[in-house]
Write a structure and sequence with these properties.
Layout: E1 2-3, E2 7-10, E3 13-16, E4 23-26, E5 32-34, H1 42-53, E6 60-62, H2 68-71, H3 74-80, E7 85-88, H4 90-96, H5 99-119, E8 136-137, E9 143-147, E10 150-156, E11 165-169, E12 174-178, E13 183-184, E14 190-191, H6 198-211, E15 215-218, E16 223-225, H7 227-253, H8 258-269, H9 280-298
Parallel strand pairs: 5-6, 6-7, 7-8, 12-15
Antiparallel strand pairs: 1-16, 2-3, 3-4, 4-5, 9-10, 10-11, 11-12, 13-14, 15-16
Helix pairs in contact: 6-7, 7-8, 7-9, 8-9
This protein binds zinc ion.
Length: 303
């Protein structure tokens, strides 16, 4: 099944907030949140979490990576639930300790709120992004016991970013892969999400494929269960390889001209895609990064 709406996914596991910018909630004696979406959606996420947990509080919040649309409401959550412990990779923690990164995250969340208004998402908070402290550094591959019979393991899955961690709950075969897998778009288009390293992205996808998850949570728009989980992992590999071939072709034709290559990719991939879709500025930023990554890969010295 491909789930594109918020609510229950399986026993004790939920999408909270809009599925386009989700927070995932694993309920149990020590409830866990995964990612913290947009700042402006803080009250909406909070209401969704309280509806499921009642008087109980989430114990942990784990980040997949430090992008603004995955950590935006973390400061808000920490105010709502002061005992909440935040965990992320060492690299993610380093990024979040930089004033320049926090400024960018604040600015992008402010812009993001404007896009949410256009998309008709309500209610929205106008409060700015709040910085916060992280409490736990996730050691990739190290198992953590959440409660008797329920464990969580963070997996190093770079490619989208270098600070990326996916979260595996083996007892339920749930994988919070976020943007380590491709993004499913409303017209069925599969948007590859490698930004910084194409080959690392494929290696991460192989690692994910070998886990054979029963529930695969993407970064935006969809959760895949049953056979659709495996299908989406294979589709993510296919989309990455097709993107590589397409972009290499444009780069050769344009002799490495970034602007012309980016607009060729955009014409093929984004222009005719129906709304709601990733806003043009964010799409262009990511596309430029992907094209740059492929150009650097094409010009790597052969050893
Ligand atoms: Zn991201």
């Amino acid at each position: 099944m491909i789930i594109t709406k918020s609510g229950k996914i399986t026993d004790g596991f939920y999408i909270v907030g809009p599925a386009a910018v989700p927070v995932y909630l694993l309920d149990g004696p020590a409830p866990v949140l995964f990612d913290a979406g947009f700042t402006a959606l803080g009250p909406l996420y909070e209401a969704g979490i309280r509806e499921i947990l009642g008087d109980r509080s989430p114990e942990y919040l784990f980040f997949t990576h430090s992008h603004f649309d995955h950590i935006g409401a973390a400061g808000y959550f920490k105010q709502a639930w002061p005992g909440l412990k935040i965990g992320c990779s060492r690299r993610c923690r380093e990024i979040l300790s930089k004033e320049s990164a926090l400024r960018l995250i604040r600015e992008l969340n402010r812009e993001g709120a404007g896009n949410l208004i256009k998309m008709g998402v309500r209610p929205l908070s106008e409060a700015p992004f709040e910085p916060f402290d992280t409490d736990i550094v996730i050691q990739p591959g190290k198992m953590m016991e959440l409660s008797p019979g329920l464990t969580l393991t963070g997996l190093d899955t770079p490619g989208h970013t270098r600070d990326f961690i996916s979260y595996w709950i083996p007892e339920k075969r749930i994988l919070i892969a976020s943007e380590a897998v491709a993004c499913y778009q409303n017209n069925g288009y599969i948007q590859t999400e490698f930004l910084v390293d194409f080959d690392a992205c494929l290696d991460s996808l192989m690692k994910i494929k070998n886990l054979d998850p029963a529930v695969l949570c993407a970064g935006h728009n969809a959760v895949f269960t049953g056979e659709d989980a495996g299908r989406h992992i294979r589709a993510s590999v296919g989309a990455a390889n097709r993107y590589l071939a397409m972009t290499e072709g444009f780069l050769k034709k344009e002799k490495g001209d970034m602007d012309r290559t980016v607009s060729s990719v955009k014409a093929l991939e984004w222009d005719d895609r129906p709304w709601p879709k990733q806003p043009e500025s964010a799409y262009l930023l990511n596309t430029r990064q992907r094209v740059k990554t492929i150009w650097a890969r094409m010009n790597q010295p052969v050893l």
